[in-house]
Amino acid sequence: MHSFIARVQESLHQLHPTERKLAEFVLDFPGELTSYSASELARLAGVSNATVTRFIKRLGYRNFDEARRQARAEKQTGSPLFLADRSAGVQDAFVAHAEQGQENLRRTFARLGGGQVDEIVATLLKARKVWVYGFRSSHAVASYFRWQIFQVKEDIHVVPNAGDTLGEYFASVTPSDLIVVFGLRRRPARLRDILAQAMASGAPVLYVSDDAVARRDDVRWHIQCACAAPGPLDNHAAVIALCHVIANRVMELAGAKGRDRLTAIEARHDAFGEM
Q: Which of 26-40, 101-115, 153-167, 241-255 is the least confident region?
């Protein structure tokens, strides 16, 4: 039997906008579901009672009470997904965040194959240029990803830079490049256009998102990272770990060329007394 959270996550791509709004509210603090009536949940999420009814039936439950009973049972198991609420203390938050990070790592890497990672790395190493896109919280991750890969791959760029337009970069993309798009929630509306243009360029596309977004089969690779958190801000432990896995594999497979660049970098560090 699927857990309550699994049912919600698996249904996300099928939901109408108001039902999706309700689903995202529930995913933020699933443990609090046990304290609400259907009407209270509708009011707090800003949807109608009818939306709650449709949502619960779409998840496969006969009624709201059945869904609430399963959520209550899962809360009793001590699942980190249900540990935190809006009134949790600092010490409780430490435990909840640590356990949630571990759960996110487990869920993310359980659906990520080593062959897929090596295919991505091989494409990255042979690419003419690597273009990395990320906005809002994704921008920091995109910059971190680029910084790690830059140790062995020179032509990797986070775009756009301040004052530049997207068109100026997409005009330079060729099918022999690689495009990496980080799309963690909340995603800007223009991310749809970026993905469309990325696919139209003919270059292979790696799309890294949270697992609240529907899976895309129109990109070469779509890696969905579990980012659930016991609080209003997503936990990106699995996203950073994914960057580490890819970067380390890049260094392992870069061969002599990669080692030569690392050696040259260290020599310049010594010359400048930077480290």
A: 26-40
CA pair distance 30, 33, nearest whole angstrom: 6
Query: Does domain 4-79 match CATH 1.10.10.60?
Result: no
DSSP structure class, residue 262: H
C-alpha 121: how far from its chain's center? 19
Spatial CA neighbour of 203 closest among 183, 223, 177: 177
Residue with tokens 């659906």: 111
CATH number of 108-272: 3.30.479.10, 3.40.50.2300, 3.40.50.10490, 1.10.10.60? 3.40.50.10490
- Is-contact 138 248, C-beta < 8 A? no
- Spatial contact of 53 and 64, defined as CB atoms under 8 Å apart: yes
Using one digit for the tens of pLDDT, what is the confidence trace for 31-73? 667 778 899 889 988 999 999 999 999 999 999 989 888 887 7
Instruction: Please state the domain extents for the chain.
Output: 4-79, 108-272
- For residues 271 and 173, is the Cβ–Cβ distance under 8 A? no
Confidence at 78, pLDDT banded by 50, 70, 90: very low
DSSP E strand boundaries for the chain: 130-134, 156-159, 178-183, 205-210, 221-225
CB proximity list for 169: less than 8 A, separation 6 or greater: 131, 157, 159, 160
Name which residue leads in pLDDT, 253 or 233: 253
Q: Considering the entire predicted model, what is its pTM?
A: 0.69
H helices of 127-254, in order, are: 137-149, 166-170, 191-200, 237-253
- Kindly report each contact of residues 145-150 with a partner whose C-beta sits within 8 Å and lies 24 or more positions away, as own/partner: 145/180, 145/182, 145/243, 145/246, 145/247, 148/243, 148/244, 148/247, 148/250, 149/124, 149/246, 149/247, 149/250
Give pLDDT tens digits for 107-128.
999 988 879 999 999 999 999 9
